Amino acid sequence: MITALGAFPVDRKGSDIGAIKKSFRVLKQGQVLGIFPEGTRVQEMDLDNTKPGIALISIKSKSPVIPVFIDSEYKLFSKIVINIGEPIYFDEYYDQQLEAEDYLEISKDIMKTIYSLKKIVGGKDVKLYIAEHAGFCFGVKRAVDIATDIVNNRGDTNVYSLGPLVHNPQVVENFSSKGLKVIDNTDNLKEGKVIIRSHGVSYMVEKKIEESKLKLIDCTCPYVKAIHKRVKKVL
């Protein structure tokens, strides 16, 4: 049942390369990866249980860590308190050559942050609200769907995105691996398809692409497009 929900086991006694690679795939797809770093239920903090994998996965995938502390008596129908901390970013380590010891120390700092969440509410209960809907907005989802269709199903080459398609590095990297190239302008392009992301571009930029030999794929959010049209009428 657990594996059917997307969970996968990790061998904590050694370096589980398979689990690490699977973790990278999950993050590369823009999904959320949940890790139980200690591998079992514990009552007291023990940094000796810390493994370097938490920091390694976060830094190598360039993904932030959201620390979560779960407090429970581990009894059926007992109260569960969940404290969620602020995201932890490790941008300063992205371009560094780190050793296993470095990853271990960073992982220990992550664990200290997680355990510090136990005291943030002074023993009071925390009520967790879960949004009914989550993910891309309508306009971004539409742009992602169109771009996905182009790079996956049509086998097109020379496909460009004028600026990152979405503000999600994992999704952008995934598209890049499939051949979608991110560009800042079309000055040096002679042919190909240019995708306008959901945020849209100015009228002059759009007109320049239309007058060239490039094919324009307009993924501008319809709501944004409507605003552009109103502004154009005023100007």
Tags for this model:
235 residues; 6 strands; single chain; four-stranded parallel beta sheet; Rossmann fold; alpha/beta
Compile the SSE list and pairings.
Layout: H1 17-28, H2 53-61, E1 68-72, E2 80-84, H3 100-116, H4 138-153, E3 159-162, H5 169-177, E4 180-183, E5 193-196, H6 203-210, E6 215-218, H7 222-234
Parallel strand pairs: 3-4, 3-5, 5-6
Antiparallel strand pairs: 1-2
What does this 3D model show about the protein?
With 235 residues, this protein is α/β, with parallel strands linked by helices. The protein has 2 domains: 3-119, no CATH class; 138-234, Rossmann fold. It has 7 helices and 6 strands; from the N terminus they run ααββααβαββαβα. The chain has a 4-stranded parallel sheet with strand order 4-3-5-6. Strands 1-2 form a two-stranded antiparallel ribbon. α5 (169-177) links the parallel β3 and β4. The longest helix has 17 residues, at 100-116. The radius of gyration is 23 Å and the shape is elongated. It starts with 16 loop residues before the first helix and ends with a helix.
Instruction: State the helicity in percent bands.
Output: 25-40%
Structure classification: alpha/beta
Q: Can you count the beta strands?
A: 6
Q: Give the overall shape.
A: elongated
Number of helices: 7
